[in-house]
């Protein structure tokens, strides 16, 4: 168990939002979720077959031993170029670009990231979203909560992480080989009630920002998962 006095870690994500070409909201959410999975599966984040830790392994353990807190900030132009020069991984969607960085202490952000804005990340979708492919994992967002795009991106990342934790090695390898293909959709109220009680992994928000503690935000519906329990994110 983590000591209450141990430093708290956070996973930083930065979304590129240029004034003249912002990404669609769903694209940004899906890209953020894939960015989290890409970092979790990166050899630098784990222990190799030789028993040696990757460069980010201890930071990832410290982060996962406490709350899996994520913070999304936005950047454009020179800000994005400076962020991109730091160690991390950039994941692209249809138009979205999200860079994920190894976990850092809550009060120890790199100076290139600490100046970036966290609030006001508002994105829209151009129209109704198509039904998700039933063969792909779906991160179902709650229809009952209003969240900024940045908050929703973090929650989608939580959902992807809970799905990843619930999979065996073969399922993880298959998902990685598929480029972590997934969809993010908002469930209709009836479907949400069904999903929330289905046993699939459920994100319960810690209540640091925007929404009440304990709120169910995301259900992670991966084809390889058919049972599970609510978990705190």
Helix content: 25-40%
Task: State the order of secondary-structure elements, H for helix, E for strand.
Answer: EHHEHEEEHEHHEHEEE
Report the strand count. 10
Sketch the major β-sheet: 5 strands, mixed
Give the CA-based shape: globular
**Rg result:** 17 Å
Query: Ends: how far apart?
Result: 16 Å
Alpha plus pi helix count = 7
Q: What ranges have pLDDT less than 50 throughout 5 or more consecutive residues?
A: 227-233
Keywords:
globular, 233 residues, disordered C terminus, 7 helices
What is the strand and helix layout of this fold?
Blueprint: E1 9-16, H1 25-41, H2 57-64, E2 70-75, H3 77-84, E3 89-92, E4 97-100, E5 104-105, H4 111-114, E6 138-141, H5 149-166, H6 169-177, E7 183-186, H7 189-196, E8 202-204, E9 216-221, E10 230-232
Parallel strand pairs: 1-2, 6-7, 8-10
Antiparallel strand pairs: 1-4, 1-5, 3-4, 6-9, 8-9
